[in-house]
Amino acid sequence: MTTPEKVRTRSQFREYAEAIIIAVLLALFIRTFIVQAFKIPSGSMIETLQIGDHILVNKFLYGVKIPFTDVELFPIRKPHRLDIIVFKYPEDESKDFIKRVIGEPGDVVEVRDKTVYVNHQALVEPYVIHRDAMILPAGAQSPRDNMGPLTVPPDSYFVMGDNRDQSLDSRFWGFVKREKIRGKAFMIYWSWDGPHTWVRWNRIGRLIS
């Protein structure tokens, strides 16, 4: 005979199991379609983003992706110049990169002596830092300081890191396809200096722009 205590235990176990399953499904839904967390592993976006920053990325702004595909549905808007985006690295799509959009489809992008020109106008970039005073001349093996002009193809974007002298970006490997963009970075939710494990309290909750 089943006692009331056993029935109550089974009922409680079922309630806990259902709560856990719902929580897991909700977390997976949010991660897949709404917001995903990423960690900044390199210094290519310094000073805007520091190594050890943990950020949140809006995954629905540019369109919800069908899982395991690059198909997008219901985009709110397209990526704009100066958006900071996370995308699949074109040379190894198993890796995620984060850079700033500099050129939109149809834009003409050129770099002259470290200054970026978009549609023949110098881009005002207060977020950029240069840590190497040397200017690599046009025609050098590296396009770091002099490049182009290049026209951004349809459904593609030209992206660059804010730490301009130490960023592997579109100057070196080309354009980012629209369907490879995973979302727009919008907030730092945690930050710490790994080697010293110091929490950067002043960065937590900071909006990314």
Short note summarizing the structure:
The chain is of the alpha+beta class. 17% of the residues lie in helices and 32% in strands. The strands form 3 sheets. Strands 1, 2, 5, 6, 11, 12, 13 and 14 form an 8-stranded antiparallel β-sheet that branches. The protein has a 4-stranded antiparallel β-sheet with strand order 9-8-7-10, with no helix packed on it.
Mind explaining what this structure looks like?
- The chain is of the alpha+beta class.
- The protein has a single domain, classed as Umud Fragment, subunit A.
- It contains two helices and 14 strands; from the N terminus they run αβββββββββββαβββ.
- The strands form three sheets. Strands 1, 2, 5, 6, 11, 12, 13 and 14 form an eight-stranded antiparallel sheet that branches. Strands 9-8-7-10 form a four-stranded antiparallel sheet, with no helix packed on it. A two-stranded antiparallel ribbon has the order 3-4.
- Strand 7 and strand 8 form a beta hairpin.
- The longest helix has about 30 residues.
